[in-house]
Amino acid sequence: MEIKSDIQIAQEATPEKISVIAERAGIDEKYVEYYGNYKAKVDYNILEEKKDTPDGKLILVTAITPTPAGEGKTTTTVGLADGMKKIDKKTFVALREPSLGPVFGVKGGAAGGGYAQVVPMEDINLHFTGDFHAIGAANNLLAAMLDNHIQQGNALGIDVKKITWKRVVDMNDRQLRNIVDGLGGRMQGVPREDGFDITVASEIMAVLCLASDIDDLKARISRIVVGYTYDDKPVTAADLNAQGAMTALLKDALKPNLVQTLENNPAFVHGGPFANIAHGCNSIMATKMALKMADYVITEAGFGGDLGAEKFLDIKCRMAGLKPSAVVVVATVRALKHHGGVAKADLNKENLEALEKGLPNLLQHVDNMKNVYKLPVVVAINAFPTDTKAELDLVEAKCNELGVNVALSEVWAKGGEGGVALAKEVVRLCEEPNDFQFSYELDGTIEEKIEAIAKKVYRADGIQFTPAAQKEVERLTALGFDKMPICMAKTQYSFSDNPDLLGAPKGFTVTIRNVKVSAGAGFIVALTGEIMTMPGLPKVPAAEKIDVDSTGKISGLF
Question: Over the Cα atoms of the chain, what is R_g?
Answer without folding.
Answer: 23
